glutathione transferase (Cladophialophora chaetospira), 242 residues
Amino acid sequence: MTLKLWTAALSWNCLRVELVLAEKGVVDVERVEVDLVRRTFKTPDFLEKSIYGKVPLFEVDDVLIFESRAICRYLCLKYPDVGSHLIPELRNPEERGVWEMRLLLEATEFDVNISPVFAETIIKPALQQTPDEVILARHQPRLETCLDVLNKTLSEIPFLGGQEFSLVDVFYMPGIYCATKCIDVFGNRHALKKWWDGVSERKAWAVGVVSLDDFWVRVSPGWKSSPPVALGEEEEGNRAHL
Ligand SMILES: N[C@@H](CCC(=O)N[C@@H](CS)C(=O)NCC(=O)O)C(=O)O
Ligand SMILES: *[C@@H]1O[C@H](CO)[C@@H](O)[C@H](O)[C@H]1NC(C)=O
């Protein structure tokens, strides 16, 4: 069985898949690193495989799967007894329903707000473009509200999916990390901070985040500092451009 993954170091959606591979200890994967900036990967062959032209894209034998969360689910089904157990055994349909709800909320409530905030705060400045204040004014308050909800959840249960570490935590981690580069995520959200300190100690995270950091450190001033350096305060000069 050949596993092939089209991926990009700068992409937090790709990191989601890398985290599951690392949690599962799956190493036999052929990776194709695509250039998201120059977009040279959008060949007819690639577009035939990934019909929306995006990464991550996963190919296993002749089957193609895109959408990072679907790839993650696939990997959990494929390797149920290998490495970390990321889909909990739940006693009844109600518990399963709640877990599925928490899993989906990451995409429907959190990702829809962190993605535009990250695009305006980090990606556009790296591309020498001006952030759109209207977009920030719309999505940043929603992001803050979402983080408050997560903090509240985590003051009631230890992990975002329930009593144990699961795919729900993995789904959130790349976006929460990117959020720390845009706004003060933890501030007085102590429960969220406690959760983050725990999950970010996992080996899979330490391994997975390296290439994302390596990319963004080169193109985004202040990437290593958190809360971030305010726009305009950074030193020009040794900054690479996307
Ligand atoms: N919901 C998708 C998002 C995929 C996505 O937006 N990928 C970006 C990189 S983070 C991409 O490939 N962009 C290329 C493009 O849109 O042209 C997922 O989770 O996989
Ligand atoms: C986060 O949760 C903690 C623990 O319940 C609570 O003390 C704190 O006030 C919460 N922070 C916010 C911003 O709601």
Summary: The domain at 93-202 is CATH 1.20.1050.10 (Glutathione S-transferase Yfyf (Class Pi); Chain A, domain 2). The longest strand covers residues 3-7. The helical segments are 12-24, 44-49, 68-78, 93-126, 133-156, 167-180, 190-199, 203-219.
